[in-house]
Every structure is written in C-alpha cells, then in structure tokens.
Amino acid sequence: AQTVTQSQPEMSVQEAETVTLSCTYDTSESDYYLFWYKQPPSRQMILVIRQEAYKQQNATENRFSVNFQKAAKSFSLKISDSQLGDAAMYFCAYRRGQGGSEKLVFGKGMKLTVNP
Amino acid sequence: NAGVTQTPKFRILKIGQSMTLQCTQDMNHNYMYWYRQDPGMGLKLIYYSVGAGITDKGEVPNGYNVSRSTTEDFPLRLELAAPSQTSVYFCASRETGVANEQFFGPGTRLTVL
Fold first, then answer.
1. What's chain A's Rg over C-alpha atoms?
2. What structural domains does chain A harbor?
C-alpha cells in the first residue's frame, strides 16, 4: 500500500523569507502523481502544485516550487517570499497513475505559521 | 460555476441517529469522492464513484453508504451514527483523465454525541 509521510507537524517562517516543507512517500509504482494541498482555517482544500512522476522537471507555480527526487521518493515544497496568507495546513498527497485506484493518499499534514 | 457544494455545513447527531450529507457539483465531472478528516490527520477516502450508477469502497467505508443516480449528486448516508464518525467530511470531484485535479467542497463538520 502506498503511504505518505510528513515528518514535521509544524513549522514557522518570517514574512518574505523562504521555507521548505518535506514529504516522503512509499510506492512500488512507476506511474503516479504527487500533489501539495493547502487548507486554510476556512477548511477549503486548495491545490497548490502538482508533479507528474514521469516528468523530470520540477513543477513551479509562482512562489511555489517542488524538489522532486524520484529515486529517494521525496517531494518537498518550497515557498518563496512567504506571505501572511500562506499560513495554513499543508498536505502532501499521492495518486496512482493510469489504471490504479482513484484515491488520493494524504499525509498527516503540517501547520505553517507565518510571522509578520 | 458554484463548483462543489455540500450541505449542511455543521451538524450534531445523537448516537444511533441517521443522516445524509449532500454533495452536488455543477462541472459535469464523472468522478466524485467522499473523504473524512479526523483531527490532526489527512483525508481518508470513504467511497468514490466513476460515473452515475457506479460506486466503490475506499479505505474506510464501514458505517456509510452512497448512491449516484445522477452525474451531479453524490450523497453520503450515515446509518446508526457512532462517536467514531465525528469528523469533517469532504466531497470532491474531477474530470475524467488521470492527470486532472480533484476539486473539493467546503466540508461538513459532524459531531456525534
């Protein structure tokens, strides 16, 4: 079974600085997708960034980028120029590729605090 | 587009009561999902559907039932509520196509006392 591990339950960062959130996963599949979701206090789950396992290039979305290390099964999220609105729970998630179960497997999450 | 909507937002049930959590999406997505999120944990899949009339169990289906009579609606039924079902419930949907993201509803906070 696939598992996703977020080993840091909480982190804090100063506004305008950079922070990296770590995630590791375990799978025997070669075709899969990885996601970072943000959950602010409103509870809404918001997709931050997505990485396809077959792509070697790391995904980037504005201030958000990932460091995808397939061999190490590591998928970290870097937030640059942190803003107060980035404060939230962040979840790493995994999904098998074609022909697999349709479910997302989530880590336990990490609470990010942004200090002004 | 309203996206994925869920009702109610909050509910308190007594042990043994039943209720239905409603989920509707207006994006014509074939795939729909129900997750639960327990305190301090990530989301776990309860049931999912790949189209009208087709449903399948996820990771934690016990104590729940679903139906999918239309593309838009995917209600989750709790029979004989138990304190262990106290959680936040999220509905999600996505387009066909394995790379497509899931869109989540705002969640329903359920407490069973």
1. 14
2. 3-111 (2.60.40.10)
